[in-house]
Design brief:
The complex is a heterodimer. By secondary structure, chain A is of the alpha+beta class. Chain A is built from 12 helices and 23 strands. Chain A has helices spanning 11-20, 59-77, 94-110, 120-126, 148-161, 205-212, 280-293, 339-355, 382-391, 407-415, 423-430, 443-454; strands at 2-7, 27-30, 47-48, 82-83, 87-91, 115-119, 136-140, 144-146, 165-167, 172-178, 181-186, 191-199, 219-229, 240-243, 253-256, 262-265, 269-271, 302-313, 319-322, 329-333, 398-400, 405-406, 473-474. In chain A, strand 15 and strand 16 (262-265) form a beta hairpin. In chain A, helix 1 (11-20) runs parallel beside helix 5 and helix 10 (407-415) packs across helix 12. The radius of gyration of chain A is 22 Å and the shape is globular. In chain A, 57% of the residues are buried. Chain B is of the alpha/beta class. Chain B is globular and about 65 Å long. Classes of the chains: A alpha+beta, B alpha/beta.
Chain lengths: 476, 418
């Protein structure tokens, strides 16, 4: 019997799970996919927003500013890449310059510090590739970038190291409440019981709430398509460049990622049925806007394109509260942008206030919050590398050429919490396959390592879970 | 561990092997080949089809057989080899940092370095092909590795984008292994593959080749379930209304090769934006003295026979550099003119004795045309051609006497219909 069952292994579920393990609570995480971080937490802009966008008084405004302040230390403790690169909201007309002034005032009302309006000359000084048409910008120095899947995986891994239990391939199909106890069943007939449920299921959170007896949660889907450029072009911009927001939204951005690539996008398309396909029109739109923002974008260095679907609530604000219909069901739903930034603050609030309402929170003295950095090996000195190789020779074998990732790092990703069970899971943890050849060279090796470590046949190794097998059989 | 070598060769594929043998035969004994895979031979090891060596050996060998001739040559000469060793970085003063499980990370000092890292395939991602991102999407070379080296089938029902040689070879290979290849699509109006491969790999198996077509959508959530192909206009834009759907579980991409020059770039060497390889003299020496480049890391070749030939050149001149040091140069630049997409070498050193063979590709298919080497308005050499295609590398020999006449930049161009 668990004290708390968290449903949904994205950044919100992950950070809440970790926060729960700071207390003497028996907790678990249910994830419907084969790995954690399979929804919008893996396919977003990775921006740590300063907090000038949200309307003062909303939960978005509150948690954005709190989360922004927490993120540097939070990421550092978990060994996740965070860069305080600063954001620039770029204006292309005098009218937009006025909007920037309003944005700055809004930011100040939300408690954002270190903002200034830049002239055209000052903007060009900061970003050499900015369009000649740009007339000025709002510079928010507290803006940053973080690896979103790195953060999610590290939070969940650290929670597991501190005693949380993870169930993957656990698609919830029924939730029953008998007295004070919830029984949650999966599509495969597994069952877990717990006293409290926290619904962090993103796109599926409306369905989870409904299964638990609350039919008031209405979730919409908005798709965003992105293009990713090679690290070779990583210095194209150094700040996160936003267009000045209009009634239609924030528009696309041009930003470095925490891993040193350049990310372009997202589009914003309402969807009746969530679908992460990219489209020719969507990608063309991204390119058109990037060309407006910047001079000669190095699109020839494109290495991939992808899309993510953001779940938003009909309140158009975060919903973070106990269900009014079902006691013991805590809702963390509609966490669209700036959800990634807000995650550490949301987690703290949910556990201290909402879970704290239900249990007497007793500190877990054994909690250890630090986690060794992932994808660390490349950055060590030769002496440090050789010390590791001497202990474990598998660190002397490069498997991914483009990102120079060793067999040792891949084995570690397969073995440590949360264990990587498929190709994409290894990729998100190590960057193996994330470079310019997109796994062309390393995939067969990684597949063999997964098969060997799990004692399964190569035919059973998948790209990202059930049904995504890499090969269809043996050759003649 | 020995840390100093006369010659370090990065890559034990066909280029590295031929360079090593040539340098040895020129008198160099202190040679080390660094190879990242567990055996020598490079990509030839997975090319189990035949057709290799027709030019060089006048017989048709499989990839492993072709490689074996050079591996044997290396072993017979007792040239030192380290396999499963990856070079991490290179500096202009010829320090080579490498890693393996036995020695850890180590830094070698070489007198000369030959870069022979080969090339890699462009991926689906580079093309921004719309649709989903399921399992079952492979580059042709990755699929070839699964089938020929690992012994697994990447799929049973296949559509291939790109009619380069690897795409054509894999169309036949997958068919022989029992898969159904529905179509090979080519965005250009012509195939960049060898004519014999179109005949032997597609025509003989009734696999349709769709010229002026590209894949406009990939479908399937977990595994590929189908693709949509569309005809393209002269600007390579898909034409609405021409969509054809294929059910399939696999898509193979054979959409071009890119020289793998991460080390070269890391060392700060100039790359040609046209070849994406280093800028070299006819000796295949780069602009950094003592660093040479050859094979597909320099320019993507059509045939391994030509890779070997180029690598021997690099190996010989690397040996000369080790034996005699730097020499005075008298440079003439070579560039591509009208209807020619690139020329290698990009610089001729007139102080190096002998004729110079220039390699180049044309930008389109031309019939009854003339290829001209010019220096200013002066025509150095011209050659009539019945047909030239971008898929086949052309060459032109400039004799030492002709070169003596050139006192400025040499340009290679193609005149239509003369």
């Amino acid at each position: 019997m668990f004290d708390v069952i968290v449903i949904g292994g994205g950044v919100i579920g992950g950070t809440i799970l970790r926060e729960l393990t700071k207390y003497k609570l028996n907790v678990c995480l249910l994830e419907k996919e084969n790995d954690v971080c399979m929804g919008q937490s893996k396919a977003n802009s990775g921006i740590v927003h300063a907090g000038f966008d949200a309307v003062p008084g909303t939960l978005k405004a509150k948690f954005n500013v709190l989360g922004n302040r927490m993120m540097p230390a939070y990421a550092e403790e978990l060994g996740v890449k965070f860069v305080n690169n600063g954001s620039l909201v770029v204006a292309f007309s005098d009218k937009e310059m006025q909007t920037l002034q309003a944005l700055k005032e809004r930011g100040e009302a939300n408690g954002v510090t270190d903002m200034e309006i830049l002239s055209q000359a000052e903007l060009r000084e900061l970003e050499k590739n900015i369009s000649d048409e740009a007339v000025g910008a709002l510079h928010a120095k507290t803006g940053g970038i973080v690896c979103p899947y790195g953060l999610t995986i590290a939070a969940i891994g650290n929670a597991m190291d501190n005693g949380a239990k993870l169930y993957t391939d656990f698609e919830v199909v029924s939730i029953e409440k008998n007295g004070e106890v919830f029984s949650v069943r999966s599509a495969y007939g597994e069952e877990v019981k717990g006293k409290l449920i926290i619904d962090c299921a993103g796109q599926g959170s409306g369905k989870i709430a409904e299964l638990a007896g609350d039919d008031t949660v209405k979730i919409g889907a908005r798709k965003g398509e992105y293009i990713l450029l090679d690290r070779e072009s990583g210095d194209f911009v150094s700040h996160t460049l936003f267009f000045t927001p209009t009634e239609k939204g924030k528009g696309i951005l041009v930003t470095p990622t925490a891993d040193g690539n350049i990310l372009l996008g997202p589009t914003s398309e309402e969807q009746a049925t969530p679908c992460t396909d990219t489209t020719a029109q969507g990608l063309a739109f991204v390119i058109e806007k990037v060309r407006k923002m910047s001079k000669n974008p190095p699109l020839y260095n494109t290495i991939t394109s992808f899309a993510g679907v953001r779940a938003y609530s009909d309140r158009h604000d975060f919903i973070i509260e106990e269900s009014k219909k079902v006691e013991g069901l805590i809702l963390c739903v509609g966490i669209e942008s700036p959800g990634l930034t807000s995650a550490p603050a949301i987690a703290k609030f949910v556990v201290e206030e909402l879970v704290g309402n239900k249990f007497v929170l007793e500190k877990n003295e054994a909690f250890h919050g630090r986690r060794e950095a992932e994808y660390f090996f490349k950055h060590l000195s030769i002496e440090e590398k050789n010390k590791i190789i001497q202990k474990d020779p598998s660190y002397g074998k490069i498997v991914c050429r483009c990102e120079q990732i060793t067999e040792g790092e891949i084995l570690r990703a397969i073995r440590e919490n949360p264990p990587a069970k498929n190709i994409d899971a290894v990729k998100r943890r190590t960057r193996s396959g994330m470079g310019r050849c997109q796994g062309g060279f390393c995939q067969p090796f990684v597949a063999e390592l997964i098969a060997r470590e799990n004692g399964i046949a190569l035919e059973e190794v998948t790209k990202n879970g059930k049904g995504s097998n890499l090969v269809t059989g043996v050759s003649k | 561990m020995k840390m100093n070598y006369d010659l370090v060769i990065v890559g034990g594929g066909p280029a590295g092997l031929a360079a090593a043998i040539a340098a040895y035969d020129e008198g160099i004994r202190d040679i080390l080949i660094l190879e990242r895979e567990n055996k020598l031979g490079g990509i030839l090891n997975q090319c189990i089809h035949n057709g290799f060596g027709l030019t060089r050996f006048k017989e048709s060998l499989s990839g492993p057989e072709y490689a074996a001739r050079f591996v044997d040559g290396v072993l017979a000469r007792n040239i030192q080899v380290m396999t499963e060793t990856t070079v991490l970085s290179l500096t202009k003063d010829k320090k080579v940092t490498a890693i393996n499980t036995q020695n850890g990370v180590f830094v070698l000092q070489a007198k000369a370095v030959v870069l022979a890292m080969g090339c890699r395939e462009r991926s689906r991602g580079a093309l921004n092909v719309a649709g989903s991102r399921p399992a079952g999407i492979y580059s042709a070379g990755t699929a070839q590795k699964y089938v020929n080296i690992k012994g697994y089938m990447p799929g049973k029902s296949v559509v291939i984008l790109g009619s380069g040689d690897i795409g054509l070879i894999m169309a036949r290979r997958m068919t022989l292994e029992g898969a159904k290849v529905h179509a090979v699509c080519e965005i250009m109006p012509y195939s960049s593959g060898l004519k014999r491969n179109i005949a032997q790999c597609l025509d003989d198996f009734d696999i349709p080749l769709y010229l002026n077509h590209t894949i406009t959508k990939i479908e399937g959530e977990k595994r590929v379930t189908g693709v949509v192909i569309s005809k393209v206009d002269e600007n390579k834009k898909p034409i609405p209304g021409t969509e054809v759907h294929f059910d399939c579980d696999t898509v193979l991409f054979s959409v071009g090769l890119i020289p793998e020059n991460e080390l070269t770039k890391g060392a700060g060497l100039e790359l040609s934006p046209r070849t994406r390889g280093a800028v070299v003299y006819q000796s295949r020496e780069t602009e950094v003295e003592g660093i040479f480049a050859c094979g597909n890391v320099l320019q993507v070749h059509d045939l391994v026979d030509f890779v070997s030939e180029e690598a021997e050149l690099a190996g010989r001149y690397a040996a000369n550099y080790i034996l005699y040091g730097k020499t005075e140069r008298d440079e003439v630049r070579v560039s591509n003119g009208k209807n020619v997409s690139y020329v290698v070498p990009q610089i001729i050193d007139k102080n190096i004795q002998g004729n110079v063979k220039l390699f180049f590709r044309v930008t389109n298919t031309f019939r009854d045309c003339t290829i001209i080497a010019k220096c200013g308005e002066q025509v150095l050499l011209q050659k009539k051609k019945k047909i030239v295609v971008p898929g086949e590398m052309e060459s032109m020999l400039l004799t030492e006497a002709k070169l003596a006449e050139a006192n400025g930049e040499i340009q290679i161009e193609l005149e239509e219909k003369i």
